[in-house]
Design brief:
The protein is an all-alpha fold. It has 23 helices and 4 strands. Among the domains are: 95 residues, no CATH class; 53 residues, no CATH class; 60 residues. α3 packs across α4 and α18 crosses α19.
């Protein structure tokens, strides 16, 4: 019998579907259920790379998503395959679709942990948005990357373990979904963010999120080699290029040396030559190094990652269906290609202001960064809406509840100013006063009359 899952938002872990189906089925044998779901005996619960995607596509997605789409949208294959050429990526995808996850380390090109080891992480604001939109909060792939300790969209520290028990909210064995209380003591999760926030870190989060969501091709071998070559051509020697790149990295990350940066990212480089390190596979996690250095390269010479240049470099080696998500690494508006640099600079300034002044309102950001907000509203509305959601109009189930709420607003205003004028109240609470004047006039007159008499008697 097939197990049909609800709509799984793009970027959600496949494990989220497994956890939902396991609990909905009331199965009493976890191992048997996992084998049944993935169609692959011995598959891990988390199944980071989606072994058995072809079986899941036919049985649980009912063919609505192909095996390759599942791999790219709901597993870490979508992230680590970005560093591969077309042939290697297709070979790996074919093996995973059939249920073979052996030898994945040679495709990930990393000797560091592929994902968080302490336990699955989640963002409290993301899970609320998930519940509002689709009713199902899911684990996000980008939150599980080793260097990600804050949500790339909301910049909130990620939650990963219980504050009382010191146990993970879920390690892949509990079949839980984000936002649930600890199964042992009932406590909510607590964030364990250790990375010191800096502009470089925030931009790294953004690049990782974009790379995973949009399947950005600049990190593939041919395109990346071309970008490094073009960057080096701006300098008379490799040493000068490395020095300029190091200075920019230190500035972005607010650190004294790049060695401190590699330590913070958990990277190990087997070469003292930075240009050699970013050109080859001498880093313990080449893709993480590329993400970190791409921001510095782009800041120094934005033309390196221009759309025209990158399309020319990527075209011969692009993975088939490379823009399957329906999005490009640039924004198309009015038939004109808008470069990523303007959009990214606007994003960066908005994120920096939110970091400097936590809790700042959307209207205050508009006042301070009006041009950037206008640009983002036109060219990157989806990101702006997700990062700074507009206030939703409340839908009242009935007039009685609305009246009760408006009464409390008036009483709160009266407690602050015992003898206000009607005009002052109308200026402060226009909708409230209009509603009560039309639908609850008797209460309003009774609430205001004693205060008005008191004001006249003291005058």
């Amino acid at each position: 019998m097939s197990l049909q899952i609800p709509i799984l938002p793009e970027g959600s872990m496949l494990y989220s579907a497994l956890a939902f189906c396991y609990r909905a089925s009331a199965a009493n044998n976890a191992r048997r259920f996992v084998d049944r779901f993935y169609g692959n005996r011995g598959a891990s619960h988390l199944n980071w790379f989606g072994a058995g995607a072809a079986f899941v596509s036919s049985q649980s997605f009912n063919g609505a998503a192909s095996a390759v789409e599942i791999l790219r949208r709901h597993t870490l294959f979508g992230y680590y395959s970005l560093g591969l050429g077309a042939e290697a990526a297709s070979e790996w995808a074919a093996a995973l679709a059939k249920g073979n996850a052996q030898g994945s380390v040679r495709y990930t090109r990393t000797f560091d942990p592929i994902a968080t080891k302490a336990g699955l992480r989640c963002c409290t604001r993301c899970l609320v948005e998930d519940e509002v939109k689709g009713g199902l909060a899911t684990w996000r792939l980008v939150h599980q990357l080793p260097f990600v300790q804050h949500c790339p969209v909301h910049l909130e520290p990620l939650v990963e373990q219980c504050p009382r028990c010191d146990v993970p909210l879920d390690n892949g064995r509990k079949f839980r979904l984000p936002g649930e209380l600890c199964s042992s003591c009932g406590s909510p999760g607590v964030s364990l963010a250790r990375m010191r926030p800096s502009m470089g870190y925030f931009r790294l989060l953004t690049r990782a999120d974009e790379a995973l969501r949009d399947q950005v091709d600049i990190y593939r071998p041919v395109a990346w080699t071309n970008a490094v070559r073009v960057f080096g051509a701006f300098y008379s020697s490799s040493n000068l290029a490395a020095e300029a790149l190091s200075r920019q990295l230190c500035s972005l990350w607010a650190t004294e040396s790049v060695d401190h940066l590699w330590q913070r990212l958990g990277l190990k480089l087997r070469s003292n030559d930075l240009m050699q390190a970013i050109s080859g596979t001498v880093a313990s996690s080449p893709l993480t190094l590329q993400l970190a250095t791409a921001e510095a390269m782009d800041a120094l010479h934005p033309e390196i990652f221009s759309e025209k240049r990158m399309l020319a470099a990527v075209a011969p080696a692009a993975v088939p269906d490379w823009h399957f998500a329906g999005q490009r690494s640039i924004v198309l508006h009015g038939g004109t290609a808008i470069g990523r640099d303007r959009r990214d600079r606007a994003r960066t300034r908005v994120l920096q202001l939110m970091s400097d002044e936590p809790g700042i309102s959307r209207s205050a950001i508009w006042d301070r960064l009006r041009n950037d907000m206008k640009l983002l509203r036109i060219e990157d509305g989806a990101w702006l809406k997700q990062t700074l959601p507009t206030r939703l109009n409340r839908r009242w189930p009935n007039a009685a509840e609305r009246t009760e709420c408006y009464r409390s607003k008036v009483m709160a205003a009266l407690s602050e100013d015992p003898a206000p004028t009607r005009s002052a109240l109308h200026a402060r609470l226009p909708k409230v006063m209009e509603w009560l004047g039309s639908n609850d006039k008797g209460w309003l007159e009774k609430a205001l009359l004693p205060r008005q008499r008191r004001k006249r008697s003291t005058s």
